[in-house]
Amino acid sequence: MVFSILLFIYLLILSYDDIRSNKIPVFMLRIGLTAVCTWILAGIFIPMPPSEPVRRVMTALLGAFPGGLLLGLSLYSDKVGKGDGIVLMIIGATESCSFSMILICISCVGLAAVSGILMCFHKVNGKTRMPYIPFVTGAYVFLKLYEGGLFVT
Q: How far is CA 108 from CA 54, 59, 61, 129, 147, in A?
């Protein structure tokens, strides 16, 4: 729970930077990667059954895989930012692969909806670069609220 709140605050800061300058500061990415590596290593050294540390590391790597695919895509296309892929790797390493995939889907739907609305009002065109991390933050909050049972009747 505490780590989810810290990750949310981290995403809010990244969202502000992404909206303001369309870039994510490298030092913020380093902070996030350091925190996640520390979190994973701390989980390994907690006394537990011998197979549990391997499972935790494999879960983190599998969760980071969708963000890694996005990072790989950013190397071949200028449409996707490298920072976006790294941020999704950070989120995926702390959550599961399915959480990461659902997060990417919801954030892309949100980005497409907002872009479509802005295109209808002639505020943007097909070449306009939109910040992606605010949509990731919104999808993260939505999924955490859904996970916590807020939408269950």
A: 32, 24, 22, 14, 20
Query: What predicted TM-score, i.e. pTM, was given to this entire model?
Result: 0.88
Question: pLDDT class for 110, splitting at 50, 70, 90?
Answer: very high
Tell which residue, 54, 52, 83, has the closest CA to residue 67. Answer: 83
Cα–Cα distance between 76 and 82 in angstroms, integer? 10
Estimate to the nearest angstrom the gap between the alpha carbon of 88 and the chain centroid. Answer: 3
Which residue reads 């800061």 in tokens? 13
φ/ψ (deg, to 5) at 50: -60, -30
CB-CB neighbours of 45 under 10 Å: 8
Contact 93, 38 (CB under 8 A): no
- pLDDT band, residue 22 (cuts 50/70/90): confident
CA–CA distance, 6 with 133 (Å, rounded to integer): 16
Q: Where are the domains of the chain?
A: 2-147
